[in-house]
Amino acid sequence: MMEFSLDLTEEQRDLRDWVHGFAKEVVRPAAAEWDAREETPWPVIQEAAKVGLYGFEFIANCWADPTGLSLPIANEELFWGDAGIGLGIFGTTLAVAAIYGSGTPDQMVEWVPQCFGTVDEPAVAAFCTTEPEAGSDVGSMRTRAVYDEASDEWVLNGQKAYATNGGIAAVHVVTASVDPSLGSRGQAAFVVPPGTPGLVATKKLKKLGLRASHTADIFLDDVRLPGSCLLGGKEALDERLARARSGQRASSQAAMRTFELSRPTVGAQALGIARAAYEYALDYAKQRVQFGRPIIENQAIAFALADMKMEIDAARLLVWRASWMGRNNRPFSAGEGSMSKLKAGEVAVAVTEKAVQVLGGAGFLREHPVERWYRDAKIYTIFEGTSEIQRLVISRAISGMQIR
User: Fold this and answer.
1) pTM strictly above 0.90
2) Which of the residue ranges 117-131, 191-205, 246-260 would you say has the lowest mean pLDDT?
3) Which of 76, 260, 371, 384 is catalytic?
4) Max CA distance (Å), the chain
5) Is 384 a catalytic residue?
6) Which of 68, 190, 195, 325 is 20 to 30 A removed from 331 (C-alpha atoms)?
């Protein structure tokens, strides 16, 4: 019988060291510039594509890891370099997860490569589900998809908010309501191919953090899509809607399946930010002298750093557990995916705030990156399910009751 071990395999260690090297040598030196410019870091994305860090093959190789740890390991290291650039590189994977979670094999083969483009001309993809009045409340989605049987086309109308890569993406994956009377069970996901008429975006939204990552609102005005753009196909959708109408239990809807796959990975991103801030604060505390000694010799500082390290390691264990469970089709019976994202997100906010405090006045200056990490961390208690929604998921899972 194989004994229990938390040791990484040689392949996982090599992956960690390789991505860390890219983050250290390429991402970190560019981080402050692209944060200030608030523009998509296309040169860095292209460099990632050249070395094999950006593309379907890389994601497929990570997913092939039977432990499920390769993807969170890679995300933690890249986001240790910079979260804005990291999301510029890995933001596409959310759309890929949607295609993987709901699409047919033929749809995966057709659309996933287009999400990434080529080494010479890299592209990005966008997953569009949040709406102005349907964020956490996905059942209130107003974007409609109506089937035109005569032409075998779907017609989409509506608005999406806060879409990562929205408007600059080659491929947009859009969730829409097919039968509003069924709430979230009446929704489906669609691929909007490059250059499709009727899809327009606002200018890039100005954000507190993750400024190198493009975010925009999307408007869909009579967007006509071939029937083949419905992820999973119409026959599967009709069967699912029939089960919902008859009151039978159905699997989770399109947006939730995507988030279930991605939450541990998002937690790993938050860990990368937290670890960067902790390491920087630790080094600073060893060097900063006050009252004739390094400030780390003061219990207040040393204990704060001890707590930061402990919380990061605890969050990582939750992320790794959920990643392993998701990869091996173990049900999140106690909301383990939500636990991982909730804990990691809140740890990132707390650790980066403490890092600023450890640096004191210096932490408030852009001369030191902790202020940027502090700004970047906050979104991890908000997007892909707020901390409140994660607690709702967990409480429902452990109680078996419809907590509201």
Assistant:
1) yes
2) 246-260
3) 384
4) 82
5) yes
6) 190
